[in-house]
Amino acid sequence: MRFPWQARASSASSGSEMANPLAGEVEIWLDGRPHVARLTLGALAALEGELGTESMVALVERFEQGRFSSRDVMAVVVAGLRGGGWAGGMDDLLAAEFRGGPVGAAQAAAALLARAFRIEGT
Description:
The protein is mainly alpha-helical. The protein has one domain (about 25-115). The protein is built from six helices and two strands; from the N terminus they run αββααααα. It has a two-stranded antiparallel ribbon. Strand 1 and strand 2 (about 35) form a beta hairpin. Mean pLDDT is about 80; it is low at about 1-15.
């Protein structure tokens, strides 16, 4: 048996996976296609090493204080996309069209960090 709201839900998603913010996921559009991104523990560890931060708190503070670089943004986005199952790398992202341009990328990176460190119930 199919209920009316189930039909609406399946047609609204158009077959694409929707990001679940409560699971730390962010939807990122590359080349006109949506991707689910999230910062897993492994992605965070790799990100910490790649950016040379003494801790993830230091990286989060950079974003909070507006002292992040475009390299920081790209690294966070790539780590998030990989955490969501994307097989690409930095070179692929450099060649991709990012919805929202540089500002959209910075917002996605900030959202990934905020959701990765969200305390349940807040």
